[in-house]
Each structure stands twice: as structure tokens, then as C-alpha cells.
Inverse folding.
């Protein structure tokens, strides 16, 4: 028997409690005969030991951390070979297959259930309803009752579902890089808590992303109350602190604001992408588009002026755009403010005529106008926007102020700076990072990585074993939002509830559980959350309230009341920013954001708005500037800002401001996962904490190499973009008029094309007037080009991701794509978006050419694709004038990754190699509605069939329904004077049509601009 | 090509009318000379070298097909919008090449053109092998080749028939009919010669093998009557095929609505193009063959001259087709057609259009000169150029029409991959392997037909 005097060296973290030697002796006494035991721990038979033994890898890590000598090297090599073999044999999950003798409540094997929960980004929630098929969430839809959604969602909400099923998600607790277990982690956390509690929290720091959740704030408060020396820092690369700083500058307090765009007649956007990013984007898009719908006979459209550096979704919708360098945007804001009577040092306006016209238009719309400052604009621009809105009497009408919704009002770069300084100084003993990836996203001048490594106890909770996770002592897998209980505030402050759709797939934990543990509270995620709300509500009827809240997805009337604030800051004292030379702006990527979605194939492959680039970030440069710099699309250049530099590819972007470079963050991640690692380049490398969103003094080198960027549209640079745009105009694909033209001649769009008469065929036409006649119409006037339809369709119809190498060959699989065309000169062109999907032509050119009848027409007018029958001649695609058919050139569908199986919509076939596919008008939804209607012996009602693209659309730009039902919305849309078909001169008779886009230009500015 | 041979043929040319068989041949010498190739010559070095290379290229084809079946058609460069690439280009090209054989054996037979006799066997074999190569592509270009048989109308449990409006289905019928008739015609034409081979063969194995294939032919008058009738009937059946096969192939495009495809001129222009390329290929193969096997007496300058004239005529029809496409693009005032033509000539694939014009229209104008037609080396080079030109024609029609069609948003480019090339070159391996085997085992010139034309011509000469 080994000596017990051996020193059991227990590190502070992650060790089982001390052995109870007497218990061991007692147990040995009980055993008879020749008993073998593996260790004292086994004998002790403690639950920890059982936990260790049951887990795959016992904690033998200490050996592995030793410097590797020859013997160890051989051992490790042997082990890795062995492990490689092991991983090949997939471990089947232990399951008992039993029928539902007593099925769960509301269970039905064929009808999906919907649960109200939330999508949280940058701390802000948007209400969603998630479809669940037999316990598997398969699709997210907007919650029509929720003020932030009104039924629409965005690309991130759609794609977040894929993140939940991502096989690369962190799946185990790691201690110093070795798989550990929950018990050990909680034990370690408890030890830590006790230690820090003794010191009143000194040395304890918690770093989170932005938090608006009342429950999390409660838990955080109780930690801070318990341990007053502890500190909570917030660093969220998605949230710019300048909005908060701007509010502080203007009002002296960090109020939050949101807009009521439905009441705004004139909107001025200062480099704001309010329709696409930010907490209220979905709602804003809805309200904005609602005011774009023209009324016959009277002008009702709003007017949008947009100033931008890099073309944005919001500026593509504008009636007038002005491309300016970042420093000029401030100058513009100052001159506009000065013109409207705000006390500020007015700089010279970059465009006097423009400023004057905008100012005049704003003056004429006091109380019904709004100036929106972009999230990434400096504080002074935000303050100026507040001051202008106040001067125009917009505050309280189009702009609503509330108490700050952010849990930590000191969040941001300064908060992170303070933390990092303390870390460098060795003052931080324990750092708990709850979600977020600061090692990747912190500005490089903080040297966060070095600082992080100085912290004695580093704990990371994250969805992925990312750049921060690998450096942490403890990495804990985070439960996805769809796996958790919680809450967060919406853009207007409404408290939105989060409820799980599924048990955490990989045993993930929540920030709430960790915070609660630190606060000394116990319980599961649900218990903690529920108890907290019970205590908050103090209501006798709490259970019923909670039931209703969970059903609705939000606490009723939980939005804070509007607050009256007055501008009191001295804006005159803020010196104007002066910058010369080439300037650069840094922005979160439009699809992968700050890199949090880097491993999400749907978002990686989604063409980025306007540029349509996929799978990469790039230096966006204006065509003229690119020429001056001697660079062009696909050139690899070194961009130097100050003394930092990074190498990346150039993409020439029409509409980019001259002498500027825009680069998106979120790429070049070393540890994103199988999908997202090491693609693009990390633009963080040329940022500093002083120049978070814009910097001057940029040096772009001559080309140092070639790097193929991939775009789904016009792969070949500016010449092809120009050719395509010219041809678009000749062909009248996107039909655009002004409100004035529309009022004079509502049918202007129809006259741009040719509609052959029905009699133009030898054959008797099919009679579609009986039964259903499904049709779709897309309102180009409402479409903002956000691509939510593309991802929603991908989620609904099990559409695969093909990867960059396949996109470069033009093999992307999206069933609905958003085409982009420009009009006007390259420096400041208008950009038009046009979603294109299968047109379900009544005379479909694809049908007669198929030799095996794999694509046929239904009597309801739907062009159907029979996957089983398709042999893959691709003739149908060649003959499709809209090129909306997609072919499985390889076996694109992932049949092997088990975790992705759960994601699939069981009502849609997963296509195999060699078959053609395309938009089906969501035939599964059509049939579902028809079956329901037949069961009730009635016909399908208008609005009963909603296609995935229609449902997701934040602006309700897509309408679908039975055209034979004359009362239906689709019939009304088809009768709209703006209704026109694409390529109707080919006599294809498309069932999908478009409503022409209208602009509402300011007559004063229109003269100066090209038509 | 030995220079003294050229001189002898040059002197032969002087005499008028030009002989179809070299001087000094008797029935026996014709049979001896031609049957010697499979029976006596054995394994000449050039055959072994040539066959080895061809067989290796054929193996490359098999490798490519294996990879293709394993991975999917994505190994090629095709995409959306260019859903067809080398696969259909090569299909049309090979089918076109096959046309010379049918034309020579059927139409020229009916027209009693005696000069066809010495090249007909060979051209028919070429037709068969070209059809075999062409057949590869529609089969393996499908996404799921193991289901390609669904294009055939066979009774099945699904109660599903092919879709009769699709030109691809017409292709199935046109090409399979063409292949079958060509095979039967070729085999029937071989029977008298197979009997000669049986009789001349010395080894037991060859006697038995040729004997079986000769189907008991003894050369009786009855046999000859039946034979002549069968040949006439088959020629009558083949004649419409010469026109129909490529007409149907052209429908693959003409029926589509893509600008650059949707044109009524396609059928005649395709048929002419097919004959054009077919004769070019006959020359490409016949010129080296007659030199290697010293068959200048049977494939004379007269033959070469005649074939050049056919090429010139069909080449002009093809040129007219190109001119009409350009004219109609302008004359119709149709924006799609206009853009198609602009894209073809000045777009990213402009080089292919202008090379096509150079290869198919400009260079072959040399054939107007009798001197050029008599220069065997030049004719050989020209035949290669026309082969490339006709291949480019299909490239232009397929790729430059598809790459930029109606919606500029879906414009794309097509770049062939190494598998496109290996499948293309590999099919040439199949073709040449079959050809080498044919030349080695069977009389590549119809002996009995040459015998038929001997007496008359010799009489005239003496």
C-alpha cells in the first residue's frame, strides 16, 4: 500500500476535494479476496471520481504539460495515432428507443410547434418564433407581436440556427487545454468565489459583452454588492460606444434613443445603416418601407438623404446620396447643424448645395424629420444629430429617448482599456470572460493577449473554443440562445424572454449560471431565471403571468417610458477633426459581423450587400482612387496605418468615397472552426483604441500579389460591372421612376417593356382560372436588399453551402438571390436591389427541354422540380432566361455530420448529387395549407400560405397567394399599376412579378444630379 | 510522305480523266495489296508505337470517367450559367465528324460516285468510332449517369415515358438510329471482303475468325444480288440520316430560347458543318494512312482533290451561316440578338469567335487553288485547321451564348478544367485505338469495290 504521506499537491483550480483517507481504509476493509484498485480515489468512490471515470479522458493532463522528452514524444505520437483511430469510429449516443406511450404536451409527430424566444445581438433582443419539429428547432421566424420584429427577421437570426447545430461548437469543459468536466469546473469556481469573497472581490474582474438583460444585470449587481471590489467590464465589438458618448456629450447622461420612422417625412442618415444593422434595424426597415409605398393621387413617400463612406444598404435606398470621407462626414454634420441654428463650430461643408437643400428640407418638416447618426460615427456627430433633432422639434416625435438600456453605462473601449491596464499591472487575479472573444477583437495596442496571460485564473465561457478559449485556464462551452432561459431588452426597451427550444446539445452553460454561482446562488438556468423574475414581479399571479409572457415572448409594457431630455452640452468646445490624405474606415462585416459568425457557412456564403463578395473581406476602394493608387480588384496590397500594417485584397467598389478605404472586421481568425478559420485577413491589426472606426494617414502599397476574391455577381471587376449595369438599363430589368412620374402616370413601368398577348401561341392555353393560381410579387420599392430572404430560404429548403472554391465557379445554390445593379457614374451611383427567384413561368422554357419530365407544371401554376426523376442534363438551366436553377455538381449536402441532421426541415427533400433544384414557391407550405383547408372542407384563405422569403422580409416586400382569389393581397398587388414582369417579351408569362421602384428626389438637388 | 511518291501521283494527275486507281493493278494485285495490311504486314513499328500511345490515352479516358463517376460532373468547369461545356461541344464535334462516312457510303452510292469506293470503308469505320466517342458525352455528362437509361422509352414500373418535347430525347433516337444503321451498313459492306480475307488467310485462327464473320459468303450470283439489294436499301435508309442527325443535334440549340441558339438557320448550317468537319477528319486520317501503308494507288490525288472540293463547298455554306447570324442580329433589331453578337465578337470569349472565322472561313479559301489541293501536306494541315475550327464553332455556340444571356446579374465564365481536357483528349484515344485495331484486323479499303472499278478504268488507260 502506497504511503499516504506523499504530498498531494492540489492546485487551486480544478482538483477534486481532498481524499478522505479514513473512508478509503474502511472501504478496503469491506472488500474481500484479491481486489485490484486503480487509485485511492476509486476506493474513495466519491462522486467526483465517478464523474472522472465516466468521462472519456481522465485528468492525466499534468503529464502532458511536461516538456516533451523523447519517451513522451513517442508516447504522444502513439496516443494521437490511437486517438485518430478512435475518432473514426463514431461513438453512437446511448439512446433508448421507446414509443411515446404518453407523449409530451402538445406533441404531434407531423405538425411543428412554435415557441416565442429571442435573438440577441450586441445585447439587444429581437422577438422570434422558432419552429420545432419533434423537439428540433428548424427555422426562426419573426414574432409578429414583438415591436422589434413585427414578423420580420434578419440574416443573423436566420443563420443563428445553423450556429446552434454547428459541429465545431465547443463540446466540453476544458481545463488547461484538456477535456475536464462540469463538476471540476464548478468546484473550482466555488473555490475561486470563496477566495475572492474573503478579499471583497479584489482581483476579480468579469468581462462581458453588452448586456441589457434585467436578470443578468440583477445577478451582476448581487455579485458586485457581495464583492464591492470586483469590477464588471463590458467590451462588445458590435456596439460602438460613441452613441453612448454622444448622448453623454449632448445631454450629460447616457440615454438611449430609438426612432419612429413611420412618422418621419425626411430622414437624414449620417453614415448610418439603420435599416440593416443595430438593435432596431428590422423594425426600422419595416417602418421606413411602409412610408415608401406610394398612394395614388397624393405624394406620401418619405425622403431619405444618405451620407456614407462605404455604400450601405440604407444608402442604396436613399433618394440622394453623398459619398464622403469620414472626416468630411463630421464636417457635413457640423455645417448642417450650424445651418439649422445649433451652436457649433461650423466647418466648411463638403457640398454646399447639398447641405443647403437638406437643411431647407429639414426646416420644412419640423417634427416630422429625423437625423440618424451612424453607430460608428464619433461622439460629436451623435451629439450634433441629437441637437439637430431637438432644434427641429423631432425629439419625442420621431426620436424617442429613454433611460439607458445598457446594463453597464461605462461599457466600451475605455472599459476594456482600464481592465487591460490592470491586467498588465498584475492587479487582476481572476478574469471571467462571459461570451465574447477579446483576444481576437481587442484593439492591438492594448496587447490584450499578453495581459490575459498574466491573469492567474482565466475563465472563458464561449460557444467556440476560440482564440480566447484556448488561452483560458477553464473553457466552458456556452449554451446557445436557443438552448437557454433568459431575457434581454429590445431596441425600445421591451423585455423579451428567451426560452430554450432544446436541451443544450453539448451540455453548454449560460452566463446566468456562472454569474449566479459567483453570487452564491444555486439552481439550474431555469430555476435561477424564474426565481429572479418571481422576486422582481412580486405578484401573486406570477405563474399565470409567466405563462403568458413565455407565450407572447415578452413582458407586457416593459419598455421604459419616454424621457424628456434637453441638449445642455457645449458642442462648441469640441474641436473639429482634421484629417488629410487617404482615410480608412473599419466596420463589422455585413455578414459575419465581428467574427462571431465566422464559422457560419450560411453567412459566409451569403453575398455581402452591394459588393456581393462572399467568403472574404477586402479593402474597398473607389474606382478613381484605385486607379490613382495603381491597384485593382484582386490585387493583394499592404495597407499601413501608423506603424501597423496588414496585407489584404482590394475590391473596387463603385460609390465608395474618393480617397477612402473601407475594410470589414471579423476575418483572418486563426481559430474560428472548420468553416471560418484563416479566411480573409484580420483588419484589427491596423486598428488602435484611438482609431476604432476610422483612421487617417493610410498608405496603400502597390500590388504585392494576387488574391482571388469571389463575388456571386460580375466576377470580373469594374469593366464587367459597368457592362452589366448598362445592359440592365437597356433591358429594363429594374424599373425605376420618381414619385412625381408615378403620380402623373401610374403605369409608367408597364410601358418600359413588352407584354405579348395571350393569343401568341398556336396551342390552346391552359385554363388557370379554376382552383388556385399561385403567384408572387416583389415590391422593389420596399426591398432593401438585406438578403434575409436568401438565408430564410436556405434554412427552410435545406439548401447547402458549397464553399468558396465552388462559388468562384458560379455554383452557389441560393434559390433566391438578390441582384444588384448600379445606375449613374461610378463615384456616386444609385444601387438597386432585385430579388430573383424562380418565376414559375406559365410558359416555362425549362419544361419542354427536359428529356425525362423531371420538371413539370402543376395545374395551379407552379413549376415543379421532381428530384427523383432528374438525371441532371442541365438543359433546363441552360434554357432558363432567369438562370435561377441550381445544380448539385457534387454531393453538396452533408450526409455525414450528424449534428446538422437535426437542422433540416423534414418536409423538404435533401438533394443528392447530380440533380437540379430551384425555388418551389415553398410547395411544402402550400400543401400544408391545402391539407389543413381540405380537412376543414374549405378553400385556402388569403395569407394562409406564407413563403419563407415572404415571412422573413422585414419590409413585407414579398407577397404570395392565390391570384384567383380576387380579394387577396396578391391579386391587389398584381393589379397595382407598378406591377411588371421580368423578360415578359420572351412570352414566358412569369408568375412572379415586380412592383416598380420609386424615388422621391428633392427637385432642388435633382437638377444638379444626373437623371 | 516520300517525295518520289508525290511525283508519281503528280504524273498520274496529268492524264485525263484522272484515274481512281493507280496504274498497273489487276484484280489479284488489288486484293493482295489491301489484304496484306492485316494479313501479311503484321506488326509494323509505327502501328505498335501509335497503338501504344492511343491505348494510353484511352486509359486516361477511363481514369477520367472513373473519377467523374466517383465525384460528379463538378470535376468539369461547367457551372450556372454555362451548364454545358466540353461535354456537349465534343458530342456535337464527334457526331459531326461521323457524317462524312454516311455521306460517302450512302449519298455518293446513290449518286453513283465511283470515287467514293476507295475511301468508303474507311470513312464508315470512322463514322462508327466517332459515334462511339460522341456517345460517351451525353451518357456521362448527366448528373446521374447511372440513370441515363431513363432517356430510353422502355416499359417501367413508374409508368413514366421520356418527355417527347425535349430535343435531347430526339437526339437519343437520332443518334442511336444513326449508330445502328451505320454499323449494319458497314458490316454488310464488309462481308464480301471478309470472305476474301478468309480465303487468303494462312493461319487457322484467322481463317476461322474471318470465316465466322463472313457469314458463309461464297460469292455466288445469288449472294451478289442479295448483297446489292441490301446495300441499296441500307443506303436509302442512311440517306435521310445524313440530314436528320445533325438537324436534330442542332435542335438542341435551336429549340432553346437563348440568344445565339434560337435560330432557324441552325439545321442546314449544322449539317453542312458536319460534312465539312467529317471530310476534314477523313483527310486527317487518310493522308498519313495511305503513306504508311503505301496505298497511294487506291487513295489517289483524285480522291483528295474531290474531298477538298466538298470541304470548300460545305465550308462556304458554314460561312454563309456565320454571316447570316451576324446579319440577323443586326436586321432583327432584337436587343438580345444584338447583344449576343456583340458579346460573341468583343466579349471575354471574342478570341474564340475570331479564331473560328480564321480557321473555318478564311484559311480554307486556299482550297480554291488547284495547286493547294494537290499539295498533300498543305491539305493535311488544312484538314487539321478545319477540325479545330469546327470544334471552336461548337465552343462559340455553346459557351458564348450561355455565358452572358438575359440577366446581367447571372453572367459568368466557363473555364475548362484538366478533367474537361482529359475527357476530350481521352476520347481521341478511344477513337484512334479503335482505328488502329480496325486497320490491323480488317481491310481498310473495300477490295471488291476497287475490283469493280478496275477493268473499266484499265481499259481506258491501255
Amino acid at each position: 500500500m502506497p504511503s499516504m504521506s506523499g504530498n498531494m499537491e492540489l492546485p487551486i483550480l480544478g482538483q477534486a476535494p481532498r481524499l478522505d483517507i479514513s473512508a478509503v481504509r474502511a472501504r478496503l476493509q469491506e472488500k474481500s479476496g484479491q481486489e485490484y484498485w486503480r487509485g485511492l480515489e476509486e476506493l474513495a468512490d466519491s462522486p467526483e471520481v465517478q464523474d472522472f471515470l465516466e468521462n472519456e479522458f481522465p485528468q492525466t493532463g499534468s503529464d502532458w504539460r511536461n516538456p516533451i522528452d523523447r519517451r513522451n514524444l513517442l508516447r504522444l505520437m502513439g496516443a494521437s495515432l490511437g486517438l485518430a483511430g478512435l475518432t473514426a469510429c463514431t461513438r453512437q449516443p446511448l439512446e433508448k428507443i421507446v414509443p411515446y406511450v404518453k407523449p409530451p404536451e402538445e406533441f404531434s409527430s407531423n405538425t411543428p410547434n412554435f415557441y416565442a424566444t429571442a435573438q440577441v445581438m450586441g445585447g439587444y433582443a429581437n422577438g422570434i418564433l422558432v419552429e420545432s419539429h419533434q423537439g428540433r428547432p428548424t427555422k426562426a421566424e419573426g414574432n409578429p407581436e414583438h415591436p422589434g420584429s413585427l414578423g420580420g427577421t434578419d440574416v443573423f437570426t436566420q443563420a443563428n440556427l445553423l450556429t446552434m447545430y454547428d459541429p465545431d461548437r465547443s463540446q466540453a469543459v476544458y481545463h488547461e487545454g484538456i477535456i475536464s468536466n462540469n463538476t471540476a469546473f464548478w468546484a473550482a469556481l466555488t473555490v475561486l468565489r470563496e477566495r475572492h469573497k474573503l478579499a471583497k472581490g479584489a482581483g476579480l474582474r468579469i468581462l462581458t459583452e453588452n448586456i441589457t438583460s434585467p436578470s443578468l444585470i440583477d445577478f451582476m449587481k448581487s455579485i458586485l454588492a457581495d464583492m464591492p471590489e470586483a469590477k464588471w467590464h463590458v467590451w462588445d465589438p458590435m456596439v460602438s460606444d460613441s452613441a453612448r458618448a454622444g448622448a453623454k456629450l449632448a445631454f450629460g447622461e447616457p440615454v438611449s434613443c430609438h426612432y419612429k420612422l413611420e412618422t418621419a417625412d425626411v430622414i437624414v442618415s449620417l453614415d448610418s445603416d439603420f435599416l440593416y444593422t443595430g438593435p432596431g434595424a428590422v423594425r426600422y426597415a419595416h417602418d421606413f418601407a411602409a412610408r415608401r409605398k406610394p398612394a395614388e393621387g397624393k405624394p406620401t413617400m418619405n425622403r431619405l438623404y444618405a451620407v456614407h463612406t462605404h455604400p450601405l444598404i440604407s444608402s442604396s435606398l436613399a433618394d440622394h446620396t453623398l459619398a464622403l470621407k469620414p472626416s468630411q462626414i463630421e464636417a457635413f454634420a457640423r455645417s448642417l447643424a450650424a445651418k439649422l441654428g445649433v451652436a457649433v463650430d461650423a466647418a466648411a461643408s463638403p457640398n454646399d448645395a447639398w447641405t443647403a437643400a437638406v437643411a431647407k428640407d429639414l426646416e420644412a418638416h419640423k417634427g416630422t424629420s429625423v437625423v440618424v447618426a451612424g453607430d460608428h460615427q464619433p461622439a460629436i456627430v451623435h451629439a450634433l444629430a441629437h441637437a439637430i433633432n431637438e432644434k427641429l422639434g423631432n425629439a419625442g416625435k420621431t426620436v424617442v429617448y429613454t433611460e439607458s438600456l445598457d446594463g453597464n453605462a461605462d461599457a466600451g473601449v475605455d472599459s476594456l482599456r482600464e481592465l487591460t491596464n490592470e491586467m498588465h499591472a498584475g492587479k487582476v487575479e481572476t478574469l471571467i470572460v462571459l461570451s465574447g472573444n477579446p483576444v481576437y477583437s481587442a484593439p492591438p495596442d492594448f496587447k490584450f493577449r499578453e495581459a490575459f496571460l498574466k491573469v492567474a485564473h482565466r475563465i472563458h465561457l464561449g460557444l467556440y473554443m476560440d482564440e480566447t478559449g484556448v488561452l483560458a485556464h477553464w473553457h466552458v462551452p456556452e449554451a446557445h440562445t436557443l438552448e437557454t432561459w433568459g431575457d434581454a431588452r429590445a431596441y425600445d426597451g421591451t423585455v423579451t424572454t428567451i426560452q430554450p427550444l432544446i436541451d443544450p446539445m453539448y451540455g453548454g452553460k449560460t452566463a446566468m449560471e456562472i454569474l449566479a454561482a459567483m453570487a452564491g446562488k444555486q439552481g439550474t438556468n431555469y430555476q435561477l431565471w424564474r426565481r429572479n423574475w418571481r422576486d422582481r414581479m412580486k405578484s401573486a399571479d406570477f405563474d399565470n403571468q409567466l405563462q403568458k409572457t413565455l407565450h407572447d415572448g415578452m413582458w407586457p409594457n416593459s419598455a421604459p417610458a419616454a424621457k424628456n431630455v434637453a441638449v445642455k452640452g457645449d458642442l462648441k468646445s469640441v474641436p473639429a477633426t482634421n484629417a488629410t490624405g487617404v482615410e480608412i474606415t473599419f466596420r463589422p462585416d455585413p455578414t459575419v459581423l465581428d467574427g462571431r459568425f465566422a464559422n457560419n457557412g450560411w453567412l459566409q456564403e451569403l453575398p455581402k450587400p452591394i459588393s456581393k463578395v462572399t467568403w472574404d473581406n477586402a479593402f474597398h476602394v473607389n474606382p478613381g482612387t484605385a486607379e490613382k493608387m495603381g491597384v485593382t480588384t484582386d490585387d493583394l496590397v499592404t495597407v499601413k496605418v501608423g506603424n501597423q500594417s496588414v496585407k489584404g485584397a482590394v475590391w473596387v467598389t463603385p460609390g465608395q468615397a474618393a480617397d477612402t478605404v473601407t475594410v470589414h472586421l471579423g476575418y483572418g481568425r486563426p481559430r474560428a472552426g472548420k468553416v471560418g478559420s484563416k479566411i480573409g485577413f484580420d483588419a484589427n491589426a491596423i486598428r488602435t483604441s484611438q482609431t476604432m472606426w476610422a483612421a487617417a494617414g493610410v498608405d496603400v502599397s502597390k500590388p504585392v500579389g494576387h488574391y482571388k476574391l469571389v463575388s456571386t455577381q460580375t466576377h470580373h471587376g469594374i469593366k464587367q460591372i459597368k457592362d452589366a449595369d448598362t445592359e440592365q438599363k437597356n433591358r429594363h430589368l429594374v424599373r425605376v421612376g420618381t414619385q412625381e412620374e408615378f403620380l402623373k402616370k401610374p403605369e409608367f413601368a408597364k410601358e418600359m417593356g413588352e407584354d405579348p398577348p395571350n393569343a401568341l401561341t398556336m396551342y390552346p392555353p391552359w385554363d388557370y382560372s379554376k382552383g388556385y393560381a399561385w403567384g408572387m410579387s416583389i415590391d422593389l420599392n420596399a426591398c432593401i436588399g438585406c438578403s434575409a430572404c436568401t438565408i430564410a430560404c436556405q434554412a427552410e429548403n435545406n439548401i447547402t453551402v458549397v464553399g468558396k472554391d465552388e462559388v468562384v465557379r458560379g455554383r452557389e445554390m441560393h434559390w433566391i438571390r438578390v441582384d444588384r445593379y448600379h445606375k449613374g457614374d461610378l463615384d456616386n451611383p444609385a444601387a438597386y436591389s432585385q430579388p430573383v427567384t424562380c418565376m414559375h413561368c406559365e410558359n416555362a422554357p425549362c419544361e419542354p427541354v427536359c428529356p425525362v419530365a423531371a420538371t413539370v407544371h402543376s395545374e395551379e401554376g407552379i413549376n415543379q422540380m421532381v428530384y427523383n426523376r432528374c438525371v441532371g442534363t442541365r438543359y433546363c438551366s441552360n434554357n432558363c432566361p432567369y438562370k435561377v436553377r441550381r445544380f448539385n455538381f457534387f454531393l453538396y449536402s452533408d450526409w455525414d455530420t450528424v449534428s446538422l441532421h437535426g437542422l433540416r426541415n423534414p418536409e423538404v427533400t435533401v438533394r443528392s448529387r447530380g440533380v437540379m433544384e430551384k425555388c418551389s414557391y415553398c410547395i411544402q407550405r402550400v400543401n400544408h395549407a391545402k391539407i389543413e383547408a381540405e380537412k376543414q372542407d374549405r378553400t385556402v384563405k388569403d395569407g394562409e400560405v406564407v413563403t419563407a422569403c415572404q415571412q422573413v422580409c422585414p419590409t413585407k416586400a414579398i407577397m404570395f397567394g392565390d391570384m384567383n382569389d380576387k380579394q387577396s393581397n396578391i391579386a391587389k398587388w398584381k393589379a397595382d399599376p407598378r406591377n411588371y414582369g421580368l423578360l415578359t417579351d420572351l412570352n414566358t408569362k412569369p408568375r412572379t412579378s415586380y412592383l416598380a421602384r420609386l424615388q422621391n428626389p428633392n427637385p432642388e438637388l435633382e437638377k444638379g444630379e444626373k437623371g | 510522305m516520300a517525295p518520289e511518291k508525290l511525283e508519281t501521283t503528280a504524273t498520274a494527275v496529268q492524264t485525263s480523266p484522272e484515274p481512281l486507281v493507280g496504274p498497273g493493278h489487276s484484280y489479284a494485285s488489288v486484293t493482295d495489296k489491301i489484304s496484306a495490311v492485316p494479313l501479311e504486314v503484321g506488326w509494323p513499328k509505327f502501328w505498335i508505337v501509335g497503338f501504344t500511345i492511343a491505348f494510353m490515352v484511352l486509359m486516361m479516358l477511363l481514369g477520367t470517367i472513373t473519377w467523374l463517376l466517383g465525384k460528379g460532373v463538378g470535376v468539369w468547369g461547367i457551372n450556372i450559367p454555362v451548364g454545358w461545356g466540353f461535354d456537349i461541344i465534343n458530342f456535337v464535334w464527334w457526331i459531326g465528324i461521323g457524317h462524312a462516312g454516311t455521306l460517302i457510303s450512302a449519298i455518293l452510292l446513290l449518286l453513283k460516285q465511283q470515287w467514293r469506293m476507295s475511301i468508303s470503308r474507311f470513312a464508315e469505320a470512322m463514322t462508327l468510332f466517332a459515334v462511339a466517342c460522341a456517345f460517351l458525352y451525353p451518357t456521362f455528362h448527366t448528373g446521374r449517369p447511372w440513370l441515363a437509361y431513363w432517356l430510353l422509352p422502355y416499359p417501367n414500373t413508374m409508368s413514366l415515358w421520356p418527355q417527347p418535347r425535349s430535343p435531347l430525347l430526339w437526339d437519343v433516337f437520332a443518334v442511336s438510329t444513326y449508330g445502328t444503321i451505320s454499323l449494319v451498313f458497314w458490316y454488310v459492306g464488309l462481308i464480301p471482303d471478309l470472305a476474301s480475307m478468309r480465303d487468303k488467310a494462312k493461319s487457322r485462327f484467322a481463317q476461322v475468325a474471318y470465316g465466322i464473320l463472313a457469314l458463309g459468303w461464297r460469292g455466288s450470283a445469288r449472294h451478289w444480288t442479295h448483297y446489292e439489294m441490301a446495300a441499296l436499301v441500307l443506303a436509302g435508309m442512311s440517306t435521310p440520316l445524313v440530314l436528320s442527325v445533325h438537324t436534330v443535334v442542332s435542335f438542341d440549340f435551336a429549340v432553346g430560347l437563348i440568344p445565339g441558339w434560337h435560330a432557324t438557320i441552325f439545321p442546314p448550317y449544322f449539317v453542312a458543318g458536319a460534312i465539312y468537319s467529317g471530310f476534314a477528319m477523313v483527310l486527317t486520317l487518310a493522308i498519313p494512312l495511305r503513306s504508311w501503308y503505301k496505298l497511294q494507288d487506291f487513295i489517289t490525288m483524285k480522291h483528295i482533290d474531290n474531298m477538298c472540293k466538298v470541304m470548300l463547298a460545305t465550308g462556304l455554306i458554314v460561312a454563309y451561316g456565320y454571316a447570316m447570324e451576324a446579319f440577323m442580329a443586326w436586321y432583327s433589331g432584337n436587343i438580345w440578338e444584338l447583344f449576343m453578337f456583340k458579346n460573341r465578337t468583343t466579349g471575354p470569349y471574342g478570341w474564340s469567335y475570331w479564331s473560328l472565322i480564321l480557321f473555318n472561313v478564311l484559311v480554307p479559301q486556299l482550297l480554291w487553288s488547284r495547286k493547294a489541293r494537290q499539295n498533300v501536306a498543305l491539305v493535311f494541315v488544312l484538314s487539321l485547321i478545319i477540325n479545330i475550327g469546327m470544334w471552336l464553332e461548337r465552343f462559340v455556340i455553346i459557351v458564348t451564348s450561355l455565358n452572358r444571356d438575359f440577366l446581367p446579374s447571372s453572367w459568368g465564365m466557363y473555364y475548362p478544367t484538366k478533367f474537361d481536357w482529359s475527357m476530350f483528349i481521352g476520347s481521341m484515344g478511344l477513337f484512334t485505338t479503335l482505328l488502329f485495331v480496325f486497320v490491323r484486323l480488317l481491310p481498310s479499303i473495300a477490295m471488291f469495290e476497287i475490283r469493280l472499278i478496275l477493268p473499266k478504268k484499265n481499259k481506258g488507260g491501255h
Remarks:
- Residues 1-16, 457-462 of chain B have pLDDT under 50 and may be disordered.
